[in-house]
Amino acid sequence: MNSSEYDPPEGINPPQKQDKQPGVEAEMHPLPQYIDPTYRGSGKLAGKVAVITGGDSGIGRAIAIHFAVEGANVVINFLSDDELEDADKTIALIQSQGVNGIAIQGDVSDESFCLDLVDKTIKHYGKIDIIVNNAAVQFPHESIEDIDQLQLEKTFKVNVFSMFYLVKAALRYLKAGCRIINTTSITAYKGNSSLLDYSSTKGAIVSFTRSLAEQLAERKINVNAVAPGPIWTPLIPASFSEEKVAKFGKDVLLKRPGQPSEVAPAFVFLASNDSSYITGQVIHPNGGTVVNG
């Protein structure tokens, strides 16, 4: 796997801004690194089928490609035509690993679409082994007074309701040994004054993960989460001002934003048998920020 197109100065983000969420990876500069060129798969996920929401770009793309390198067939979900170029590239990268990949467009905040996503996956592959709930939106505001009802509902529908919908739709197909992995955030633990509703959803995801792990333990389905810190993804220039983008990630111990390639191996670990004795837990790839819980 070659990601030589990624070559940014370490810790430097040129000022930039995108107008729509969740953002377009192809328009970012520098491009995020989706996999380290030295990464070598070892068949940890050979023959598995994974469904990844928000899988066209950013952390979702990195997860999809790492899963493919490890031998999994992958279904990625993306939202709109704006992300079609990113989705097509991700599928090409998946298929370059000699596995199968399909992209399914739709809004995971709609329960009927989540049912459709599962049905199409089952028709194509006949099973689901891994679910990665990764889709998310964020809309910065400096005051709670600026968060209107529509924004609040959208943030919770995309970030939290979608996880309920997809797991409910897929559960009848999940067997012992299957894995559910949810993307939460460092904001669930340390907060973020300009991302009040987003941070609240990420806290809800931690509780969802722990509670669902308790529900599904008897069925031998492990449920865990990953809480990234500041990661260089399309959501960043699509969310923040050019000034904030230029400073993004400088406040962690490593003094730089992380790359999707530095997060995705945590998902491989949680999706594989290496994590067979781990459930209800959260992994924190965050550049050195100490969190509690």
Brief digest:
With 293 residues, the chain is an alpha/beta fold. Helices cover 36% and strands 11% of the residues. The chain has helices at residues 58-69, 84-95, 111-125, 149-170, 187-190, 196-216, 235-239, 242-247, 264-271, and strands at residues 49-52, 73-78, 101-105, 130-133, 179-183, 222-226, 282-283.
What does this structure look like?
The protein has 293 residues and is an alpha/beta fold. It contains 9 helices and 7 strands; from the N terminus they run βαβαβαβαβααβαααβ. It has helices spanning 58-69, 84-95, 111-125, 149-170, 187-190, 196-216, 235-239, 242-247, 264-271; strands spanning 49-52, 73-78, 101-105, 130-133, 179-183, 222-226, 282-283. Helix 1 (58-69) crosses helix 9 (264-271), helix 3 runs parallel beside helix 4 (149-170) and helix 4 runs parallel beside helix 6. The longest helix has 22 residues, at 149-170.
Strand order of the largest sheet: 3-2-1-4-5-6-7
Classify the helix fraction into a percent range.
25-40%
Q: What is the makeup of the main sheet? A: 7 strands, parallel
This entry's quaternary arrangement is single chain
- In DSSP terms (H or I, runs of 4 or more residues), the helix count works out at 9
Full CATH superfamily name: NAD(P)-binding Rossmann-like Domain
Structural class of the secondary elements? alpha/beta
Kindly provide the name of the CATH class.
Alpha Beta
Q: What do we call the CATH topology?
A: Rossmann fold
Radius of gyration over C-alpha positions, nearest whole angstrom: 18 Å
Q: Into how many domains do the coordinates divide? A: 1
| CATH architectural arrangement | 3-Layer(aba) Sandwich
Strand content: 5-15%
